[in-house]
């Protein structure tokens, strides 16, 4: 899995269900992620991959978000591609980790569908049938259906009811996706990292997945067709509520008109200080509402 809580928590939920059926589950993780999960109270079996510490996905995402919020969107995307490319090749070049995985003789692999192909390539190298898990299903790979007239591309913000102009833009985005089935690397990864087996295109590697578990829900998006081997299973990372801290509980109790909770998602774990300052400045201009802003480990009351 990519080393980010938003990627790990859904898989942990799945692992708990598998354990109820007497299956054992082992995670390949960075030592940093293992420490974070232990501190959060999770007890999971792990294999440490030093390469995942060297190219830590949360660091890659944080740097991309900070660059994007500074207004340099193209540079942010370039940095993300460089980071995920280094992550992918670093992981597949981790020979000690490959040998340790092979020694365990696993029956199946559940691999992260995004952001890189390296986890699927690793399963192919180890002769493991694999299942893909992710927050989206790429229709350009599944071909079910490839119809840009009503199926929005990832991160496009379009709906199934696009205008003519939006459909043209969406079609162009689809064509780009068709040219980039191997992100973050254009080369044939099986030729480089699995020379002992028949060469298979990056696209075909993705299509080898037995099943796709999509951690999203059409009720929160728009209706779209999916292949028969896709399970729409939103809310995998949901957990029972915990007791609010006293100060925050008082804030909620004293909000006579209710509260509004806004989340930017776990992808923005820590906002750049300049962006946070601008937000707080804007909130301070509103006199009839109170705000609680949480960023990283810090909570600010405005």
From TrEMBL:
InterPro entries per UniProt: UDP-glycosyltransferase, UDP_glucos_trans
Domain of life: Eukaryota
One function term, GO molecular function aspect: UDP-glycosyltransferase activity
Pfam families membership: UDPGT
Keywords: Glycosyltransferase, Transferase
Family recorded in the similarity comment: Belongs to the UDP-glycosyltransferase family.
Name this polypeptide is given: Glucuronosyltransferase
Organism: Mytilus edulis (Blue mussel)
